Amino acid sequence: MQEQEFDVVVIGGGLVGISLVAALDGSGLRIALVDAAPAPPGPARPADPDLPKDWDVRVYAINPGSERFLTSIGAWPGASDRIAPVLGMRVRGDASGGRIDFDAREAGTAHLACIVESRLLMQALGERLDAMHDLFRWRCAGAQFELEDRRALLHLDNGTVLHARLLVGADGARSWLRAQAGIAASVKPYGQTAVVANFTCAKPHAGLAWQWFRPDGVLALLPLPGRRCSMVWSANAALADELMALDAGQLASRVTQAAGETLGPLEVLTDPAAFPLQLVRVSSLVQPRLALVGDAAHNLHPLAGQGVNLGFQDAQELARVLRDRGACHDVGQHRLLRAYERARREDILAMTLATDGLQRLFGHSAAPLRWIRNGGLTLVDRALPLKRLLIRQALG
């Protein structure tokens, strides 16, 4: 049995976990990364970027705050021809007149977000990790977790035991570490599935993201480079099954019709994929010698596109707290970790209430609620101070 000692052990090698490790590079802390997932795929940019199956079906709307964070840690993708800036957003309710529009120029920013492929982000973060020569990595799963007064013990399924001042759970919505530590998590399935696919579009999207609140769910079309777009249709279970069963021509026709031909006739660029949607709320982000980040700490409805941005903010704030700990040499002290939790609770709660509230509000078919929600969209669109507040929150 091999035993090794570290200051920080991060469990989970997804976007948020890797960004935290990169943000702690040069801090003087001894860091390890444990990831049970297989090695990521090869380069995200093959020779011909126009190959139909080249585009990653899963994309993220990265807000300017997350973009600055990734840039600061040297992990912002440099492939500008693979990244589409969002210059504006058009949101439409499920009744005539319900609308709200956001524009980057009015917000005083170059763009509201950037649409980036998951594979491209993982490649940039992976290259950043490869440059950390003093980083220890294991590709295996945790088998047992023990908590002592001055350290935590992580037993891996390959027999290795890691001693850490701090364990960080970045292992997703079904976090193994969260469960092992006994941190309560409230899980509410939405009864919806996010169906995602990429399309070519006949009309230019002009950098606009579109979102429609519909009786059968929430449909969004996000701009990709060129005349391409990415669809996220948060549909009820029956509709999601129906969409996934359609052939390419039928799916393109269905989405074109649902979007009111806003981008003209669509053609399928990548095969669709489906992800069940749920709300996960945890009782605490920290315990002595343990902290949660990303989906392990919160899992939201994707209608606002802010899930991964909240995770990057977690990583940025936890790294800041650990770097600025002053005379506190023990990075696992509960008092220190509580500073991270206090800094993140408000943003997480606000985004949780906003996304869950909108999903509930537009999930009911009662006529009075329909009038209220669509009138509310238009009212917010005209209330400039409130609208600016929403934009500032979304920009990160």
Account of the 3D structure:
The structure is a single chain. The chain has helices at residues 15-23, 64-72, 104-107, 118-130, 176-181, 237-245, 248-258, 307-323, 334-362, 367-382, 384-395; strands at 3-11, 31-34, 59-62, 84-86, 88-92, 99-103, 113-117, 136-138, 142-147, 152-156, 161-169, 185-201, 208-214, 217-224, 228-236, 266-268, 273-282, 286-287, 290-292, 298-299. The chain is α+β, with helices and mostly antiparallel strands and 396 residues long. The protein has a single domain, classed as FAD/NAD(P)-binding domain.
Topology, element by element:
Layout: E1 3-11, H1 15-23, E2 31-34, E3 59-62, H2 64-72, E4 84-86, E5 88-92, E6 99-103, H3 104-107, E7 113-117, H4 118-130, E8 136-138, E9 142-147, E10 152-156, E11 161-169, H5 176-181, E12 185-201, E13 208-214, E14 217-224, E15 228-236, H6 237-245, H7 248-258, E16 266-268, E17 273-282, E18 286-287, E19 290-292, E20 298-299, H8 307-323, H9 334-362, H10 367-382, H11 384-395
Parallel strand pairs: 1-2, 1-11, 2-8, 5-13, 11-19
Antiparallel strand pairs: 3-7, 4-7, 5-6, 9-10, 10-11, 12-15, 12-16, 12-17, 13-14, 14-15, 17-20, 18-19
Helix pairs in contact: 1-4, 1-8, 2-8, 8-9
List keywords for this structure.
396 residues, eight-stranded mixed beta sheet, 20 strands
**CATH homologous superfamily, by name?**
FAD/NAD(P)-binding domain
What overall geometry do the principal axes of the alpha carbons give? Answer: elongated
CATH topology: FAD/NAD(P)-binding domain
**Kindly state the mean pLDDT as a whole number?**
88
CATH architecture: 3-Layer(bba) Sandwich
The major sheet is characterized as: 9 strands, mixed
- Which percent bin holds the helix content? 25-40%
Whole-angstrom Rg: 22 Å
DSSP strand content:
25-35%
Count of strand segments = 20
Q: How many helices in DSSP terms?
A: 11
User: How far apart are the termini?
Assistant: 45 Å
Query: What structural class results from the helix and strand content?
Result: alpha+beta
CATH class: Alpha Beta
Return residue spans where pLDDT drops below 50 for at least 5 consecutive residues: 43-49
